[in-house]
């Protein structure tokens, strides 16, 4: 590897560290907005088939602690996953202040279960409006 290639690789690593640090320190709504833009671009270039519609989405996996105890240890239920919905900025006309994924709903068009920072959200799979509670 040449000196120039080594220098370029170091710069790329610093840029990657910067990007990761920046994304990790963002508020939840800002992070979701950035990821929405990235996923939108990636999805626009992805191949679709006649028999399937797939979309790369951000998800929230979670598990709940059950009431069951085995050998003195608490037992966790199986994990579930919800897609992170996008804020419907047209409805709100600007920023949404919530910094917490605490709204949940189901897309009435495609049936995707959605978690969001806002009651009025957009389904990350089909782009329909989703009302969350
Ligand atoms: Zn949908």
Question: What can you tell me about this protein's structure?
Answer:
- The protein is α+β, with helices and mostly antiparallel strands.
- It has one domain.
- The protein is 33% helix and 26% strand.
- It contains three helices and nine strands, in the order ααβββββαββββ.
- Strands 1-4-7-6 form a four-stranded mixed sheet, with no helix packed on it. It has a three-stranded antiparallel sheet with strand order 5-8-9. A two-stranded antiparallel sheet has the order 2-3.
- The protein is extended.
- It starts with a helix and ends with a strand.
- The structure holds zinc ion.
- Residues 107, 109-110, 112, 123, 125-126, 128 line the site of zinc ion (ZN).
Biggest sheet features: 4 strands, mixed
Number of discrete domains: 1
What's the pLDDT, averaged over the residues?
92
Helix/strand-derived category reads alpha+beta
E-strand count: 9
Order of helices and strands: HHEEEEEHEEEE
Percent helix, as a range, is 25-40%
Distance N terminus to C terminus?
A: 56 Å
Work out the helix count: 3
Anisotropy-based shape: extended
Radius of gyration: 19 Å
